[in-house]
Amino acid sequence: MKKTTKLLTMALAMIMAACTLTACGGGAGKGDTITFGTNAEFPPFEYVTSNGVIGEYDGIDMAIAKQIAEESGMTAAVENMEFDSLLVALQNGQIDAVIAGMTATDERRETVDFSTTYYTATQVMIVKEDSDIAAATDMADKKICVVQGYTGEICVQDMGYTYEAFKKGTEAVMELVNGKCDVVVIDSATAQKYVGDNEGLKIVEDAGAFESEEYAIAVQKGNTELLDKINKAIDKMLADGTINELAVKYTEEATAE
User: Mean pLDDT, the chain, as a whole number?
Assistant: First the structure.
């Protein structure tokens, strides 16, 4: 009896351990679905629309996520949340991966693993057409708006400037449109979308002040099974030009609207 009880106890312990690993997102996804976390406030990479490629979500990243899932024989699902919550949700097992125009920084690499880079971007400044801001140094005495958690915020912090952070890019840009700030620092592709949507705005670039950044997909540390699937799909899309075609398609659509 004691031996049987001991064996049952060991079996239960093994089952509980396996369940814990599953709950933590240790596998390639949950069942036949890969749940991607995103912040759908970053056009043309991710945004909400009436007819998206994954439910109501559309954009460069969403199209990439869908193809990654299909290449892996799985289905893509999306959880939309605040940008600052994404890596926490990933670590808690709420989502399987993060695709949100996220820069693969050394600091983030300490807590998550990143895929192959799929897009290289840079930060720019959105200003009014009559603005005297021509370089990043001209922001010193201006009111600056950024999106909380985005690379633009980090850049402005590093420059030592004071700023106001918003949850959404649209909110930051509307501050500029309404004359409540002088400049918005944000990703170049997204800047094109906002400038196209709002008359009287222009983009100012400063390559010397803003370094290029590499977007990649984040997974839990050690989740090599899912990372391998993602990298295989990304490598294929880079090789056959799919990602470049998606970038051109969505950027042109954004600027044409």
Answer: 88
Please enumerate in sequence order all residues whose Cβ is within 8 A of that of 206, keeping only pairs 6 or more positions apart, or say none: 124, 125, 135, 136
Q: In the sheet where 144-147 sits, what is the strand order?
A: 164-166, 144-147, 183-187, 123-128, 201-204
The amino acid at residue 198 is N
Beta strand extents in 59-212 (DSSP E only):
75-80, 97-98, 112-114, 119-121, 123-128, 144-147, 164-166, 183-187, 201-204
pLDDT interval class at 10 (50, 70, 90)? very low
Site of tokens 């600052």: 84
Q: Shortest CA distance to 219 belongs to which of 102, 71, 45, 82?
A: 102
Six-digit token pair at 97? 């991966």
Dist. CA 65–CA 87, nearest whole Å:
17
From residue 212, alpha-carbon distances to 60, 74, 80, 228 in Å are 18, 33, 26, 25
Average pLDDT score over residue span 181-194 = 90
Burial of 69 (0-12, 13-18, 19+ CB in 10 A): buried
Report pTM. Answer: 0.70
